[in-house]
Amino acid sequence: MALDFTLVQLRYFQEVARRENMTMAAKHLNVTQSAISTAMAQLERTIGLDLFIRQRNRSVVLSPAGKRFLAEVTGFLEASDALGEAAQGLSRSLSGRLTVGVFSPIAPTRLPLIHDEFEKRYPEVRVNYLEADLEELQRAVTAGDCDLALTYTLGPTDRFDSFLIDVVEPHALVSRDHPLARGGKPKPVHLRELADEDYIQLDLPFTRQYYDELFRIAGVVPKIRHSFSGYETVRSFVAMGHGYSLLSQSVSSGTYIGSRTVDVPLLDDFPNIDSALIWPKELRLSRRARAFCELARDILGPPGE
Questions:
Q1: What is the spatial distance between Cα 41 and Cα 278, in angstroms, rounded to a whole number?
Q2: What letter does residue 285 receive in the DSSP assignment?
Q3: To 10 degrees, what angle do helices 33-47 and 7-19 make?
Q4: Which has the closest alpha carbon to 209: 127, 271, 130?
Q5: Which parts of the chain sit beneath pLDDT 70?
Q6: CATH domain 7-87 topology
Q7: For residue 152, what is the enclosing H or E element?
Q8: Pairing of strands 198-202, 273-280
Q9: 171-271 domain in CATH 3.40.190.10?
Q10: 41, CA 20 to 30 Å: which among 144, 164, 181, 204?
């Protein structure tokens, strides 16, 4: 006998399971908490299983049966989405909504290029963006606040699938008047050659730890003079000659204050990082998201890719 539950109940269940809180799930889905509670009670009654263990602080956790049911529901909803896309002819003309997270230092210089071309190719897709640091982006992707995120693969990324955009090498950043700038065409150096100078730190979650590891590999203890969470603030302080920095993204040498910086290649055997789009492993990308990934690689990937 067929069970009488709805797609809406299954989507509510998936959201509650993801957030472990009915109030937060209701807020994200833009419905009342009573609607969520009623739907979950009806779903449990219909299938004859207790899907959640209710906590005293109003949070919920999946029961063992709930965990097994979630695995089945996830695949079922993905298939349902794919069927809906096929029915709407999305193989010929993409439409709908897409929310993309973007790492803050990447957003000002890379995102406008992608968005401009994506709008031209897929005018019926409405794209919204969430700009944040690496830690917040991973949280947002996991919570379903964005469909995928353009980021660097730093921190605990084993929970995500990824679409590689490019491999990024770290470099030192100095002012145009720095001795290593050499007229704007510097030769590669070892990081230890900067060890006695002041260091301007980009202080973002996961990013800071990555650069700390580079100093450890080089056997250098940085003389941290200033620490900022703003990418352009770091670049402006370097451009004014207040110290050097370590960065991964190469951008135009100009800064907001008009002074210029110079990228100095490093000879050290440092680990590279990947620029990629990420999403939760248990989810399958929509065709809209896949199209965004492919376009991002066309624009940002290495020449010839």
A1: 34
A2: P
A3: 110
A4: 271
A5: 1-3, 57-58, 81-93, 184, 252-254, 303-305
A6: Arc Repressor Mutant, subunit A (1.10.10)
A7: strand 148-152
A8: unpaired
A9: yes
A10: 144
Residue 250 is predicted with a pLDDT of 79
Scored b (16 or more CB within 10 A) or e, 183-200 reads eeebeebebebbeebbbb
54-83 per-position pLDDT tens digit: 877 667 888 888 888 888 888 787 777 666
CA 303 to CA 189: how far, in whole Å?
25
pTM of the model: 0.69
Q: Name the class of domain 96-160+275-300.
A: alpha beta
State the pLDDT at residue 91.
46
Q: Looking at residue 227, what is its pLDDT?
A: 97
- 173 DSSP β-pair partners: 245, 263
Residue linked to tokens 């947002």? 140
Please give the pLDDT value at position 61.
Answer: 87
Q: Where are the domains of the chain?
A: 7-87, 96-160+275-300, 171-271
Residue 149 CA from chain centroid, whole number: 3
Domains 7-87 and 171-271 share a fold: no
The pLDDT of residue 182 is 74
